[in-house]
Amino acid sequence: MTDTIIMEELSKSFLETIANRQGYFNATSRDYGTDLTIRKANLCPIRRRYLTGGKAIDIQIKAVFQKYVRNYDDPSKTSIKYDLEVKNYNDLIIRANENGAVIPLILAVFIMPDDPDDWLTIDTEQLIIKKCAYYYQVDPSADHSTNQNTIAIEIPKANKIDTDFYTNIFNSLD
């Protein structure tokens, strides 16, 4: 496999692992601009079994080398900058403006070390996938980009994906 495909698979595994730890799961069957569809299984007390909940989020993942993300290592900056392909940016805009859409499309930018040997470490005590991911949601009032190739997006460092990410996103859907 190419490095790009390996990066994509590791980033999906990272996001699925966080979801699974919190009781959410990946329900994606086809990729139409969505890499993961995350849902939750809720315990039905009457029937004493789990049922798929009625909320979901779609995630588009971009796995990138750290060298392509600006301000990542700059502690004086409160956001990172990433050049997203225009087609992907416009997909986010289309979904945000879709009449009747109830499933948000979120971009996750997974930042990986520039050296592939540093992506994954395994020993008898731990599994480490480096580095981290940030999420981005477009403002529904944003316009489509007319740029030719990319558009610089700014993602607050506060949008780092951690173990509470899915719970927080799902709670915001209420």
**Nearest-integer average pLDDT:** 91
The SSE string, one letter per element, is HEEEEEHEEEEEH
Summarize the amount of helix as a percent range. Answer: 10-25%
Low-confidence stretches: none
Percentage beta strand: 35-45%
Number of domains: 1
Shape: globular
Main β-sheet description: 5 strands, mixed
Number of strands: 10
Give the number of helices.
Answer: 3
First-to-last CA distance: 41 Å
- The oligomerization state is single chain
Order of strands across the widest beta sheet?
Answer: 1-2-3-6-9
Query: Which class of secondary structure composition applies to the elements?
Result: alpha+beta
What is the alpha-carbon Rg in Å? Answer: 17 Å
Can you walk through the features of this model?
This protein is an alpha+beta fold. The protein has one domain (3-172). Helices cover 22% and strands 37% of the residues. The chain is built from 3 helices and 10 strands. The chain has helices spanning 3-21, 86-96, 165-172, and strands at residues 24-26, 36-44, 49-65, 69-70, 79-85, 105-112, 120-122, 127-129, 132-136, 150-156.
